[in-house]
Amino acid sequence: MSDFLRKLLGAAPPPLLGVDIGTSSIKVLQLGSSGSGYRVEAFAVEQVPEGAISEGNITDTDRVAEAVKRAVKRSGSKAKDCAMAVSGSAVITKIINLPADLSEDDVEAQIEVEAGQYIPYPREEVSLDFEILGPAPRNAELIEILLAASKTEHVDLCREVAELAGLGLRVVDVESYAIANAFDLVRKHAGIDESETIGVLNMGATASTLIALRGDRTIYSREHAFGGQQLVDDCMRRYGMDAEQAAFLQRGETPPAGFEDEILEPFRQNVIQQISRALQFYSSSSDYSGINTLFLTGGAASTPGLAEAVGDEVGISCEVADPIEGMRLAPSIDAGRLERVRPALTTACGLALRGFD
Question: Which end of the chain is more exposed for a tag (fewer CB within 10 A), N or C?
Answer without folding.
Answer: C
